[in-house]
Amino acid sequence: MANLLEKYDKNMVACSFSDETYHYYDIKKAPFKIEGLAWFNKEQEYFRLPKDCQQDVSEAVYWLSSHPAGGQLHFQSNSKTIVIKVQLAASANMTHMTGVGQAGFDLYYKKRNEKNYHFFTSTNYPYGQTEYSIVLYRNDKSEWKDFLIHFPLYMGVKNVWIGLEKNALLKPARKRKNPGKVVVYGTSITQGGCATRPGMAYTNILSRQLDIEFINLGFSGSGLGEPIMAQLMIEIDNVSLFILDYDANGGCTGDLEKNMKNFILILRKKYPTTPILVLSKPPFTNYVFLKEEVELRRRLVEFQKNIVLELKANHDENIYFLDGNTIYGKDWEECSVDGIHPTDLGFYKMSKTLLPVIQKLLK
């Protein structure tokens, strides 16, 4: 079926690329800038946590931290063509998430006088492969642009090279409008499941809209709020906002009720006045008829709201709560792939709801 589809529709052909006429750059070296991976500058690994934390965190969290969700590559160039060469840790294999979302990259660009990024394309490659070369950008003219490439959401990355025309120039990325960081701790939804491509994870959407670095610490099925995770989060410098989005995991296991207050107090040891936003989980369509789940959701919303009120009463003026039941707005039933994990529509609606809230907190 796949071969016939490619035969009859050329736009469905996997866009592998093997031309070696370009100059290839290792993205770990200047002038490229990698953001969204808090320990990258120290360890030079596409890893979301420090490599030496393996004995301190769960097996699942450590493995998931090898998936560079939220990682971003920034640079400027006037190349008419941009090629990406990638070596992955394994082949794409998820059942309800595209290969591009799981293991691909996507590219955005903006002209020097523009405020907003524009999507160009993604790495449409044969998903059984662990190595691929793809053309990510083409232009008839040589024009200086800012480029942003998002890393995969659910796949380890070994090596990445960017290919530019041999006569093209390369410059460092321009400084962001907002110099701080937004650190988001949470679950599979935070990690980006199940966006069709990496740029549609809500943390990446908001990073582009707000022009600020986001650190994505979402761990699929493993956002339990262990104290070690808060301790690792305060290793990150220059944090402007923390978002706690782990209700969908910790709420089910009892960990959220057991440890959320302590988790916040650990963050406050280094960041006593930095805004913290507590976000309850979005609505799940496949739970609406389950009385126990409906009651659990109501209880957890009240619990999180009351934690925030308690801390405010104890002179923590910069902690806030947002009810995730409202995050999709109208037509919320159409926002997931499986009743739980957002589609691109779901992530877009999440970002629309969160944007004005975060803008206010960052002022």
Report on the structure:
By secondary structure, this protein is an alpha/beta fold. 29% of the residues lie in helices and 23% in strands. It is built from 11 helices and 15 strands. It has helices at residues 2-8, 40-43, 59-64, 99-103, 188-191, 202-210, 227-233, 247-253, 255-270, 291-313, 344-362, and strands spanning 23-26, 33-35, 72-77, 81-88, 106-111, 118-122, 131-138, 145-150, 157-164, 170-171, 181-186, 213-218, 239-245, 276-279, 319-322. Helix 6 crosses helix 11, helix 7 (227-233) runs parallel beside helix 9 (255-270) and helix 9 packs parallel to helix 10 (291-313). The mean pLDDT is 95.
Q: What is the element layout, followed by pairings?
A:
Blueprint: H1 2-8, E1 23-26, E2 33-35, H2 40-43, H3 59-64, E3 72-77, E4 81-88, H4 99-103, E5 106-111, E6 118-122, E7 131-138, E8 145-150, E9 157-164, E10 170-171, E11 181-186, H5 188-191, H6 202-210, E12 213-218, H7 227-233, E13 239-245, H8 247-253, H9 255-270, E14 276-279, H10 291-313, E15 319-322, H11 344-362
Parallel strand pairs: 11-12, 11-13, 13-14, 14-15
Antiparallel strand pairs: 1-9, 2-3, 3-8, 3-10, 4-7, 4-9, 5-6, 5-8
Helix pairs in contact: 6-11, 7-9, 9-10
